[in-house]
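Table 4 source record.
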Amino acid sequence: MPSTTSGVASTTATLDGRAVAPGALRLYQLALGEHTFVVTSTDVAGNTGTTTLTFTTDTSFADMRALIDQLASNNGQRTRLTDQLNGAEKSAARGATTKAIRQLREFKDLVRREHELDGDLRTALLRDADAMINRLSTG
């Protein structure tokens, strides 16, 4: 006969205070910065346990390239975005900050012009380009 006092009765999760559904979190959809993920489970007997995880999301040229590789809708789009981004990264690596910032602004213009671009990808790339411009501007 199965026990009526063991096993998980319920589990809830919140991310930054908002309920989240079970499944994978798409971290690229989060704002850059610190986040708190809390999971609370209650067993059949009424015992409750909570685990809290604090983490930070950030970006880099490599992260932006990975998003393009994962979410671009076709090879032409992938190539155009990656080529523009790579130019900005090379300029930044050479210390040509002003040129890298200009290229990132051109990258943002390209992202806006790509009509078939997934909306989540567009939002993430524009946000990440702004973060990289800010990082390069403040040195």
